[in-house]
Amino acid sequence: MNRATDTTPHGVLHIRPLSDRTGAEVLDLDLGPPLPDHVFAELRAAFHHHQLLRFPDQHIDETQQIAFSRRFGELQVHVLDQYRHPQHPEIYVLSNVDAASGRTIGRHPDKGTLTWHSDLSFQRRPALATILYGIETPAVGGETQFADMAAAYEALDDAMKRRIAGLRTVHDLDRSRRRMGEPPMTAAQRLQTPPIEHPLVRTHPDTGRKVLYLSRHVSHIAGLPADQSETLIEQLMAHATQPRFVFSYRWRPRDVLMWDNRSTIHRATSYDTSAERRVIHRTVVIGEVPI
Question: Which family is this protein grouped under (predicted)?
């Protein structure tokens, strides 16, 4: 598909592609009031088609973000309780601004977001969709990058597809956080998120496409010697994050961005945490067990 001239019908929604790789923006849609069922049905179809949707210039509060997100399914309350919104635990707060003083804290609030990952891949039912509300966003840096893992799988040669068919990966949140230099999880948090296996190649439940389901939450490939596991993970990650599969999104204040974690991986880019303010509210829709 030539996304620059995408003519997929969207009925009442005004949608245009963000790039020739992935993503689209939905214009002139207010996410505050409840959406009529026929509008939401078109929006869901657009989400499956584009994988990534941007809603510019939104002015929503916490309850409105939660209500919009919940239309897509059950919401997660994150195991890392230090990031939970104090009044709305479904919202995960990513902020470098001290709530009491209003000043920047001078450090990144969650370095784990700087590495390629799929949200909640460390759970039995990983994320279907992530919805971010950019209340304050940096003027320089702080982009979010996305890699199309369906396209990455399809571009593998037949020998590699045969090699990885049936392999399973072990996803471990505590290990991935330690790898990024974050404080270790508490014993209670580790107990809630033990390492879990998922297929390395999954089938998307809505599109039927095969997807390379890989993330930096992966500690190793089950059943392979450690050196072979690490080599294969690095080879596949290098393949999947080539520029031809990656779209980099430049935030604007009050953007809402949502994406499909089943067919993409993402990462944030760095920014000056002392000079730039970044306040993001995140909700995550829980998906199905990967098959």
Answer: Belongs to the TfdA dioxygenase family.
Beta bridge partners of 212: 201
Q: Which residues are catalytic?
A: 117, 119, 266, 282
Quote the number of domains for the chain. 1
Q: What is the pLDDT of residues 58-90, one digit of tens each?
A: 999 999 999 999 999 999 999 999 999 999 999
Q: Is residue 43 part of a domain?
A: yes
Tokens matching residue 98: 């001290």
Global pTM value: 0.92
| CA 93/CA 157 separation, integer angstroms | 40
φ/ψ of 81, rounded to 5, equals -65, -15
DSSP string, 44-61: HHHHHHHSEEEE-S----
- Structural domain contains residue 140: yes
Q: Return the pLDDT at 184.
A: 85
For the stretch 177-225, pLDDT in tens is: 998 888 889 999 999 999 999 999 999 999 999 999 999 999 999 999 9
With respect to residue 126, please indicate whether it lies within any of the assigned structural domains. yes
139: domain CATH number is: 3.60.130.10
Domain membership flag for residue 291: no
- Residue 9 lies in domain: 3-286
